[in-house]
Structures are given as C-alpha cells and as structure tokens.
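Entry 14. Ran structure prediction on the chain below.
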Amino acid sequence: MEAISFRVMRATLAFGKLHERGAALDQAWANLVDLSESSGEAAVRQHASSLITSLAGLAVAVLDHYPNRAARLPTPDMPASVAEAARSCPTDFRNLQDLVSEEDRRLLLEIQYRGVIRARSEYEDTRLELDTAREEFITAVRTELSGA
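Output, structure tokens:
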C-alpha cells in the first residue's frame, strides 16, 4: 500500500509541475498579447503584433515538418522553412528587448517549437500514470477494507 501511495504522490507532483509550466507559458503569451493591445506607444503595439505574427509563422512551419512536435527543436538539420521562420523572431524580440524578459522569450519560443503543455506527449503520459496509480490505490484500499 505504501508503494502505491508513493506512486500516486509522485504522479500527482509531476502532473502539478506540468500545469505550473503550462501556466508560465500561458502567462508569457498573455504578456505579449497585452503589449500588442496596450494603450501606450504605437511602436510597442506594432513590434508586439509583429512578434505575434512571427511566432505564429514559426509555429506553422514547425507543425508542417514536425506534426507531433516530438523532435527537440531547433536542430542543426532544421528544414529551411523552419529556419527562415525562426530568423524573424530575434529581430522582433530585439525591438521589444526592454519589455519582454529573457524568461518570456524562452517560454514563447518553447510554445512555438513544442506546442502547449496539454498537447504534448509527456502530459498524456503523466496523466495516464496518475490515473493508473490512482486506480491501483483505490483497488488496494477497497481490498483492504473488504478484508477487514
């Protein structure tokens, strides 16, 4: 019973960390969208909108060549269309260098290269592991209670 409880706890923590990571990715994207809609400088809105367009183009290029996004990107043998789409992003990031943190840059590129957390294979694998451990725990508790 103790081993099963440990598996449930480990899977729960792993699942929680994925959701925490997903929240950070979502927040980075929300920050960028806020910049593109801000009531401040027109140049900031324009650069933020340009970055959104560039990131969307990168996501499309990645999906064209890596539909399941299983490959860790970028790679040295990256297709030309992906490399070309990736080249436009640094320019857009430089235009917003004082407004987009280094961490947000990393997160925004991760979204484009690897997709949202909930669509990734490790999310499904961790969810399956959690569901399996939980079912085993419930079965073990019922067995123990019925034997008591």
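Helices lie at 2-37, 42-65, 80-95, 102-114, 121-147. Will compare against last week's run tomorrow.
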